[in-house]
Specification:
It is a single chain. With 306 residues, the chain is mainly α. Helix content is 76%, strand content 2%. A two-stranded antiparallel ribbon has the order 1-2. The longest helix has 29 residues, at 222-250. The radius of gyration is 19 Å and the shape is globular. The mean pLDDT is 85.
Length: 306
């Protein structure tokens, strides 16, 4: 009986719940790259327009977010909160989906997953700079090593040359990391679920017209629409519910550690979803990036003395 009580008590702890929700959020986000590729197709076999996938998913999620805000009777953001909400939208609503969608037309999801592997480290770097913190030399060494690894991987996959898609992927990573940091700061003032919902609603005046303008005129495979629905409902909206709530329950520093497995999950999920192939060298690069990010996130970051 005591063992059962202890086990039940452990599962009910906020830290444990935070880690479980964090794993759920990471799994949802890990499917984003394969599902984006499924929705947009490739240059050889195109499906939905990448711009439609990027902004159409935000338009659909924005409609769901508007209903949520109405029925939850959420307070309107203050004038001071509008600017950071719009800046967050620039990263997670426009930058990340658009750059990613354009990139995966030219490279497969496995390739994109390895390049995006530096996202946790990029988020930590921008967070330190925006929050006026002083990362240690070890942290900067890991950041440089991580960037060097993904550039080396892109060079190798590009047959001794970088592709335009690699630059788009790095821009996607930069956009997402900025949006994560900005959204996390707003979560100290608004409920985490309301942050992403207001971000999406404020973006509707742009996302809806662009989605209608880029609406597909040719028949599209049902699987592409399935990928589009996934990135709209889960990647663009519900995934942030789990992720932001996880950070609130378990603590940002502790829960964010689970994000390091996200690119590896994306690679593995691309195999059954898209039928892509994993070779040994790609796995080796992915593991190296994962280890560098894991070490880097444990390096000290101190408050800057003014």
């Amino acid at each position: 009986m005591n063992t059962i009580r202890l086990s039940t008590s452990a599962w009910s702890q906020p830290a444990t719940q935070g880690l479980l929700l964090g794993l759920l959020g990471v799994f949802i986000f890990a499917l984003s790259i394969p599902m984006t590729r499924l929705a947009s197709g490739s240059n050889a076999a195109p499906q939905l327009d990448p711009v439609f996938v990027a902004l159409g998913r935000a338009a659909l999620a924005g409609g769901l977010a508007a209903l949520y805000l109405k029925f939850s009777r959420a307070r309107r953001p203050t004038r001071e909160q509008l600017k950071p909400l719009l800046l967050t939208a620039a990263g997670v609503v426009f930058g990340w989906p658009l750059f990613l969608g354009l990139a995966v037309r030219s490279v497969d999801a496995v390739h994109a997953s390895v390049i995006s592997g530096v996202l946790p480290l990029a988020t930590a770097t921008l967070g330190a700079l925006m929050l006026r913190q002083r990362p240690s030399r070890g942290f900067w060494a890991c950041a440089i090593a991580g960037l060097g690894l993904v550039i080396g991987f892109a060079w190798w996959r590009g047959s001794a040359g970088l592709q335009a898609a690699d630059g788009l992927l790095l821009l996607a990573v930069l956009s997402a990391s900025y949006g994560y940091v900005s959204g996390a700061r707003l979560s100290q003032q608004l409920k985490p679920e309301q942050v992403i919902s207001w971000v999406l609603v404020l973006s509707l005046p742009i996302t809806v017209p662009v989605a209608l303008w880029t609406w597909p005129q040719q028949p599209v495979a049902p699987s592409a629409w399935g990928g589009f629905l996934y990135v709209s409902v889960f990647s663009m909206w519900l995934g942030f519910f789990a992720w932001y709530r996880a950070l609130a329950l378990g603590g940002t520093v502790r829960v964010s550690q689970v994000q390091v497995v996200q690119p590896f999950l994306s690679m593995l999920l691309a195999v059954p979803v898209l039928g892509e192939h994993l070779d040994g060298m790609t796995v080796l690069f992915a593991v190296a990036v994962l280890l560098v990010v894991w070490v880097g996130k444990r390096m000290p970051v101190n408050a800057r003395a003014d």
